[in-house]
Amino acid sequence: MDKTTVDIPTGDGVADAYLVRPGGDGPFPGVLLFIDAFGLRPRILEMADRIAERGYAVLAPNLLYRGGRSPLVDPAELGDPDRRDAIFGRVMPLVKALDAGMITRDTGAYLDFFAAQDRVAAGPVVVTGYCMGGRNAVRAIEAYPDRIKGAASFHGGGFVTDEPDSPHLRVGAITGELYLAHADNDRSMTPEQIRTLEAALDAAGVAYTSEVYPGAPHGFTMTDTAAYQEAGEQRHWVKLFDLLDRVHPAAS
Prior knowledge:
The protein is of the alpha/beta class. It has helices at residues 42-52, 84-97, 100-115, 132-143, 191-204, 230-247, and strands at residues 2-10, 13-21, 30-34, 57-61, 125-130, 148-154, 177-183, 207-213. It has an 8-stranded mixed sheet with strand order 1-2-4-3-5-6-7-8, sandwiched between helices. Helix 4 links the parallel strand 5 (125-130) and strand 6 (148-154).
């Protein structure tokens, strides 16, 4: 595979990113991977590589580039529950500052950059996101329904808020398909909020699947954190690849 770190010019600076493409001439259908709050690190690169192995070009931008280039945290700290509060204290101000307007502008820059790369197929992409990246993946498909044909969110939160830019208020713009995997007992996405989001999707006629992973904590896909759950992580790959095979198939 062809693996490289790239810089993406945006309206607010430069986002560092990881770009991986399969070997061969392509062109390969594109997948955007939206990171969690802990940034680009070996685990995210590993996940991007696994998607690329199935025949996709994958671009994983540092969504929190306004706070600095990757790494934003020391990956060695992530598996230590005693250091979790300190890590969140560093990254949460950046997460909270990343509003819908920023994501809309940034996603346009990511899509333009991705489309200009060699061996990346023309046309719409799919976006998969984790934790805050899940919420922002949905924001992205809301903002660019003609350029994003599907979105998957895993242990995402904050879909239903009292703010005027709450993602659940804008789902009517979505024309592609959604897959939503919710962590069990997640304070950032309560059962009531899940029901509110699903009601909004139903009212808008969006094609979607919304599932709660029993016993899975927030962050269950991340093997380098204390929140990792093997069953949830393995299920997530099955569901993600099901979505890709259905709406965005790669050449066999």
